Amino acid sequence: MELNRMSRRQALGHLSHLSAWGIAALAGPVGAQPSASAFPHKPITLWVPWPAGGATDVCMRVLADVAGRHLGQRVLIENRAGAGGTLCMPILQQAAPDGYTVAQLPYPALRVPWMQKVLWDPIRDTTPLLQLSGVTFGILVPANSPWHSVDELFAWAKAHPGELTVSTNGVATTPHTVMEALSARKGFSYVHVPYKGTSEQMLALASGQTMVGMNSNGFAPFVDSGKLRLLATTGEQRARRWPTAPTLKELGVGIVANSPYGLVGPRGLPAGVVQVLHQAFRAALLDPAHVAELAKYDQEPAHLNPEDYGHALRDAYAAEKRHVERLGLLRAAG
């Protein structure tokens, strides 16, 4: 009997030990699960869909530097230029939803899927983080150009069909679609010369490789230095930096174009990670160093939180379909 009692006590002791070990073993992995409080524990990569050295790239580098200080980890810039600013989408589509890969989302990413077949979807394959700012656009000519107004430009283009060369920052970008609308309304044809980004395009325009250029307000240094002449802008109102340049709207063309942009992550980012990234990049967006950099290009912060930015992206995506359809550029279904 004593042997049986001892055996039972020993058995219970072993069971107690095993139970405690089992609970600890189960609790261990749960406690080791990644959490928002542990994020980030390594550098974050911010993909910029434009070449290094352009206005957007420079602003993004200032933003990344400040955000890195708030996150306690470096934010590394990687450039993937080309295809009208859409080459970051395949990267996001294939990235793990862990918060270590984010990208700038420019407006062409909301337009291109309506114009050509792509394997990604700008709404389905992203998690909105925040809207940052937005750009307007301008029509520019070299400083030695004979044209001093868009009316002179349009008149020459109508009198010389197909001879006008116009550069933009890529196929299906906002400058490209605006030029398509202008040529249709004003009855002229032109040769489109796409570039990968603003700085490359502006250098080519200033040297006379094309006759006209249209791009975002990254043209600022070239206009301010006298290398290019700004004929008109596409905003609702005249630009504060260049108040003598009229808008296309006031010239009676009836076109207003601007492109908000922001940051997104891959599809399925955890809410806690979204919150950490949003807070850090919002602080960076409003930091005086970043605000001053935006001001060089006549821009200012235009913050939207993740939820509001998501709504704005969905509305813009639907609006771009209607816009592309009006231009006759909507791709066939399938």
TrEMBL record:
InterPro entries tied to this protein: BUG, Bug_dom1, TAT_signal
Family (UniProt): Belongs to the UPF0065 (bug) family.
Protein name as it appears in the record: Tripartite tricarboxylate transporter substrate binding protein
